[in-house]
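Hey, resending since the last one bounced:
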Amino acid sequence: MVTDVFAHRLNESIGRWEHQHGRRLPNTELVARLAEAGHSMSMAYLSQLRRGRRDRPSMELLVALARVFDVPADHFTNAGKDFDTAPHHVAAGLTNSGLRRLINAAAGLSAESLDYLSLLADRLRRADRLPAESQTAGWVL
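The structure tokens again:
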């Protein structure tokens, strides 16, 4: 059922945001963030969506949620069933905000683009006179 998928993914995204930021995301703040992202809604409607009691969220809401949580809009629907949340979970556990941004930005890139990003990172490491990636494999970030 689409409602169950939507409610689950919405609550999962909220939980990931809370883990990443180290604090709760109250519904009042989420409603305000959604308004900033271009979609106004009531607290009652958000509550119904979170509990799976409302279905068929508008495309505008999906786009605003995607902006707030930095995920593809189809993450909240069955169309997003193949979305890999692993990079976002890894990023949420990092204390280095720069690395978090990099992982979130790289999530979903093609294999070719990831290879290019890795090559670019290697060149930047050399420019900063840092050891090669293979020499840092055991480091905790």
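Residues 92-131 form one domain.

Sorry for the duplicate.
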